[in-house]
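Worked example

This section walks through a single chain of length 228. The input is the sequence exactly as stored; nothing has been trimmed or padded.
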Amino acid sequence: MSGGDDLGVVGHELRSPLSAVIGYAQLLRVSDLSEEQRRHVEVIERNGRRMLRLVEELLVSARLAAGTFEPDRADTDLAALASGCVTDLTPAARTAGVALVPLIPDQVRLSGDPEVLALAIDSLLGAAVRRTPRGGTVTLRVEPPADGVRDGSDHRWVVVEVTDTGPPVPAGQLGGTGPVRGVALGLPVVAATVAAHGGSVAVDHPPGAGTRVTITLPVQSPTESPTE
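Given that input, the structure is written out below as C-alpha cells.
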C-alpha cells in the first residue's frame, strides 16, 4: 500500500475506539456524579473529541494525497459547526489567556461536508488561538449568504473569517510545519478542501489586527441548480 493508503487504514482503525471512548464519557457525564467527577469526565470527552478530530484530519490528508477526496455533501448548518468549534476551543483559549469572540448568526445553511468544514474552521481557529499572545483576541465571524459573482460563477456565498491580534503571519508560514506552528491541516490542505466545495481561502492583515483568514463558500455546489 502507498503511504496515503497506510494513513487511511490507521485512521479508520483509530476512529472506532475513540468514538467508543467519547460515547461512554457522554453516558458517564449524565449519570449521578459529583461536580469534580463530572469535570474529569468532561475533560475525557473533550480530549477524546480532539483526538477524533485529529484522526479525521489524517483521513482527509490521506484522501487528498491519493487524489480521492470528494466532499460528502449534505444540508449543513455552518453556524452550528462554527459554534461547536468555539465550544471545543474555549478551554484552550481560556488557558492561553486569549479571548475567543464568536460573531455567528443563529443559522447558516449550505450544501457541504459537515465533518470536513468543521475540521477547516477548527484548524484555523485553533491556530489563531495558539499564535495570539496572552491578552489578545481571536474573532470568528460567520456571515449569512449574500449574492455575488466570483470567478465567473453566479452563486449565493457564505463567508467565514478568523481574525487574530497576534503578529501578522505571511500566508506561506501558515502551514503545520513552518516556523509558526498551528494550522493542523496546514493552510494549503484547508484551501484544497474548501476548493473542493467550490470555495476559496484568502489571507490578509487588516489594520489593528494580526492575521485574517477568510473562507468563502457557495451555498450550493457548483454542479447544483439554484433554488428559490
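What to look for: The longest helix spans residues 35-66.
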